[in-house]
Specification:
The structure holds two protein chains of two kinds. By secondary structure, chain A is mainly alpha-helical. Helix content of chain A is about 75%, strand content about 5%. Chain B is mainly α. In chain B, the strands form two sheets. A two-stranded antiparallel sheet of chain B has the order 1-2. The chains are: A mainly alpha, B mainly alpha. At the A-B interface, α5, α6 and α7 of A face α17 and α18 of B.
Chain lengths: ~500, ~475
């Protein structure tokens, strides 16, 4: 394949944002919206084509592009395998949804908003495509700029604090990763990860480098105790910002563990498994309890995201086939479900301008379609069988039982807590007594909201009943990941 | 002897042109415009002369003057940045009634001084060049002579700089006394760890040079002079003398002091870390944009010195790349200040930027790019500058320096974000005049374009710099 499909995937959104920037569209923003919608859907189809033409029977990187970038030093190297393709498709699928959602929720500076979203999409796809540590770092960090602006310019009343917290937390975590990347370069003479996999980093360096990478991924994930930026950022960000943050940005860290931490530092990954288990269990139990106490819907979902990400880290570091597959499944499914839940909150927020649970109650009597969709997503979030949320958690717990009974039991307890806060949220918002007279005048979802929510609901149910398309895609890559890990451990 | 003159042809040409346009300025009335344009022309011609001159190392006048790739690179950088600073500030100069014909001539004189600084291979020539440059800068700092703050900053700069020159001269005389020569190469062959007197001299010279590049703890003059001097002068101060100062510092470390690496390395590491930390912390509380840029420039010099602190050629190269990108960013940042005009007054408080993204979206976007680049966020040019420095630092296994440097990056990101917050998140207060300042706009645009597209070909500067130390 000579056509640079990955580069065009990355730079298509950037190019269209340039078009929007240059378009003279003063009175209404329709042309900007159409350009961005068109380009993001085109990107989505391009990524679907990529998925379709990807050979899932090999764990090799495919569609590899390589260009000399910094002389004799770093190559601009891109490529996908069975794991990264799913995150790319998730990104390109969520972006058009965000653009549709901004038609209803963003009222000022729409053009700039669309530009920020599209630039962010470029960086996110870049993260999942890059096969070079420096390129990865470049895209990973660059995403901070548009997200900072999205939270800060279009966010809620405490947006400045949240935007700063988001930016500085993430930057602080990442600079240590940069040090680690440069050290790896001087140790191995390359930053190309396929070569680093071969070379094997000396074991005395592994632990410290692993910790440096953890500092970045733990903040991004976010893991307890550095998760505190997430609720603030989620609450203040506009709907589309929250959706991107929950659905894609959080997945970068999980992807980072799979792509970098485990294959490059297998011995350290093994060594630090108890640490990750402890942090994950604390995250699951503690943030679930915190979520129970929230009276702000967005904050509740944000804390539930931290808990769900706890399952992801738990699953990844079981280093079993079930655990890792469960984690990837959980990440994809959480990407869909949390995006949908934030959109649901956005729908009622656009009408009543309140995120407080106490504002609502008995919505089912007035806006039944909305309530039905909300119910599907909250049941998916608590992991009801038949939704995509179940499968991920189930596989993660299966994997965890093979490694540690205690961790598995505590994590299972977290599932119960998850059911508690999600059901209680649904009870208070959808059912219950209507105290607020304005709810009676609420409009049910309009066409654009229906498109977004129904397509998400369809996927959540589809992947709940028929996980094969996803499983088939990443299965071979996960196998080889585990094989390489085990050979490294045995040879040690 | 006369054949040797073609080696210093740029200097000769520059001196002759300075004298001719000085005469012209005296005899023509209202000559600012003519002299200004002639100055730009002279700079361009000098750049062409240097570009066409060969890069082989040549030493003349008893080996006291060198022309090599190193000096040529810095001369071009100095000329290029002076050209941008001068042209982007033209409207500002006229609006503030600084349009005396001496202004561009003094700038040319300081450039001449810097030429001798970067070309010198001898303590005496180096000192003469340094003084020529400093004297020109004293006048420039107080050029707005009816303005109290400008005069004050001129006096302050003069007194402190004279003190540092004194220290430098003392260091030079000690060095001569203990090594028996003023020639850099001869000094290098004489100097070693046992030669305590020479090590002492090195400390004095280092202090003097640290003052010139305003590194902590010799930075005290910077904020006051930056704030007091007219903005056009401040932007000159922030860019050009730093380039020359850093070039000289690298030259000293590379040639005369190369044998006492361990002695000066500790000092430079200390200066570098102190500059990075002070630059980051002190800038957080600033309200004046120029003062903030002063502290930020202190921080940036800290990063450039981190490259020098490695004592390896790769480190020096990374410093040179750093200072080159720093020049581009600062030209852009200062050019933005020339557009903040309201009722004939130029605003320089950070709070005046409040909400300009609504009324002046393009200016706001340019500032956004420049500030994120100064903060070193990828994929902008500023990131690569820092990246190369830390690659060099980590190559020499100076982990502490690298980690402190990167942590101060995060701290300094805070105050850059604070300005971006004021520009983008706050309410709009002031509408600035629709400006006709084309030159400033062009330099902002050029600066932003370079910073954004830098990632397409990030080894451009490295390739240039790689050739500098071969000789």
């Amino acid at each position: 394949m000579n056509f640079p499909i990955l580069s065009s995937l990355i730079f298509l959104p950037l190019l269209s944002s340039l078009f929007i920037f240059l378009s003279k569209d003063k009175t209404n923003n329709y042309s900007s919206i159409y350009i961005s919608l068109f380009s993001s859907i085109a990107t989505f189809f391009l990524s679907l084509f990529l998925w379709y033409s990807l050979d899932v029977n090999t764990s090799e990187f495919q569609f590899v592009e390589e260009k000399s970038w910094i002389n004799n030093f770093i190559k601009f190297k891109l490529g996908v395998d069975g794991i990264s393709i799913l995150f790319i498709v998730l990104t390109t699928f969520i972006t058009p949804i965000c653009i549709i959602s901004c038609v209803n929720s963003v009222k000022v500076r729409v053009k700039e908003f669309l530009i920020a979203i599209l630039i962010l999409e470029t960086f996110m796809i870049g993260v999942f495509c890059s096969l070079d540590l420096v390129i990865f770092y470049l895209f990973f960090e660059a995403g901070l700029i548009p997200m900072f602006l999205i939270i800060g310019v279009w966010g809620g009343p405490k947006r400045v604090y949240s935007a700063f917290k988001f930016f500085l937390f993430t930057l602080l975590g990442s600079v240590l990763m940069l040090v680690a990347i440069i050290v790896i370069y001087w140790l191995t003479g390359t930053t190309d990860i396929t070569q680093i996999y071969e070379i094997k980093i000396p074991r005395e360096y592994q632990n410290i480098l692993w910790l440096a990478f953890l500092s970045s991924f733990a903040v991004k994930m976010p893991m307890w105790p550095v998760h505190t930026w997430l609720p603030d950022a989620h609450v203040e960000a506009p709907t589309a910002g929250s959706v991107i943050l929950a659905a894609i940005l959080l997945k970068m860290a999980g992807y980072g563990f799979l792509r970098f931490s485990i294959p490059m530092f297998p011995i350290a990954s093994d060594y630090f498994t108890p640490l990750i288990f402890t942090l994950s269990i604390i995250a699951i139990i503690y943030t679930s309890l915190v979520a129970l106490m929230q009276d702000d819907m967005k904050k509740l979902i944000a804390y539930s995201s931290v808990a769900h990400m706890g399952y992801v880290t738990l699953g990844i570091f079981t280093l079993t086939k079930q655990g890792i597959e469960g984690s990837i499944y959980q990440m994809i499914s959480h990407g869909l479900i949390s995006a949908a839940l934030f959109l649901c909150v956005g729908v009622v927020y656009d009408r009543l301008h309140s995120r407080m649970i106490s504002t609502y109650g008995g919505l089912v009597n007035y806006i039944p379609k909305y309530s039905f969709l909300f119910l599907i997503f909250s049941l998916a979030a608590l992991g009801l069988p038949g939704t995509s949320g179940f499968l991920g958690e189930f596989l993660v717990l299966t994997g965890t039982f093979q490694k540690s009974y205690l961790a598995a039991m505590l994590a299972t307890f977290g599932v119960v807590l998850g059911a508690a806060y999600m059901l209680w949220l649904t009870k208070r918002v959808i059912f219950g007594v209507t105290n607020n007279s304005e709810i009676k005048k609420l409009r049910d979802i309009n066409k654009s909201e229906a498109i977004m929510l129904v397509s998400l609901a369809f996927l959540v149910l589809f992947f709940g009943f028929y996980p094969l398309p996803l499983m088939e895609t990443f299965s071979v890559s996960v196998n080889s990941l585990i094989n390489n890990y085990e050979t490294a451990i045995i040879s040690n | 002897m006369i054949n040797n003159l073609n080696i210093m042809f740029p200097e000769v040409f520059l001196s002759l042109s300075i004298f001719s346009i000085l005469m012209l300025g005296v005899f023509i009335k209202k000559s600012f415009n003519i002299i200004f344009n002639l100055t730009s022309l002279i700079i361009i011609i000098t750049i062409t002369i240097i570009l066409t001159s060969p890069n082989e190392t040549e030493k003349i006048f008893l080996d006291s003057f060198t022309r090599d790739a190193f000096s040529n690179y810095f001369k071009i950088l100095i000329l290029f940045s002076s050209f941008c600073v001068l042209n982007s500030s033209k409207n500002f100069i006229i609006d503030n009634k600084l349009d005396k014909f001496e202004y561009p001539i003094i700038i040319l004189l300081s450039i001449l001084g810097m030429f001798f600084m970067v070309s010198s291979n001898d303590l005496i020539l180096f000192y003469l060049g340094l003084e020529l440059q400093s004297l020109a800068l004293y006048i420039l700092a107080s050029i707005d002579r009816d303005n109290l703050r400008s005069t004050e900053s001129g006096i302050k700069y003069f007194v402190l700089s004279a003190l540092s020159s004194g220290l430098l001269l003392y260091g030079c005389s000690l060095l001569y006394g203990f090594t028996g020569s003023t020639n850099f190469e001869l000094i290098a062959s004489q100097i070693n760890q046992e030669n305590t007197g020479a090590v002492f001299a090195m400390v004095f010279i280092l202090v003097g040079l640290a003052f010139k590049v305003s590194a902590v703890p010799f930075h005290m003059w910077t904020p006051d002079v930056y704030e007091g001097a007219p903005t056009s002068i401040t932007s000159y101060f922030a860019v050009v003398p730093k380039v020359a100062g850093l070039a000289l510092l690298i030259k000293f470390m590379f040639i005369p002091f190369s044998n006492i690496l361990l002695e000066w390395q500790t000092i430079i590491i200390f200066i570098s870390i102190a500059s990075m930390i002070l630059g980051a912390v002190a800038a957080m509380i600033q309200k004046n944009f120029k003062r903030l840029l002063a502290y930020s420039s202190i921080g940036h010099i800290g990063y450039a010195l981190a490259g020098v602190a490695t004592g390896a050629i790769s480190g020096y190269e990374s410093s040179i790349v750093y200072i080159s990108i720093y020049v581009i960013m600062n030209i852009g940042a200062f050019s933005c200040l020339y557009l903040l005009k309201k009722d004939g007054q130029y605003k320089e408080n950070i709070s005046d930027l409040s909400g300009i993204s609504k009324k002046h979206p393009l200016l706001a976007l340019s500032l956004l790019i420049i500030l994120f680049s100064l903060a070193g966020v990828p994929p902008l040019g500023g990131f690569f500058a820092k990246f190369y420095v830390f690659v060099a630092v980590l190559k020499n296994e100076m982990y502490g320096l690298a980690i402190v440097g990167l942590l101060t990056t995060v701290m300094s990101a805070f105050y850059y974000l604070k300005i971006i917050k004021i520009i983008y998140f706050d309410d709009s207060l002031i509408t600035f005049e629709a400006t006709k300042n084309k030159t400033a706009q062009i330099s902002i645009f050029a600066s932003c374009a370079i910073l954004i597209t830098f990632f397409l070909y990030p080894s451009f500067l490295n390739n240039l710099v790689n050739t500098l130390f071969i000789s």
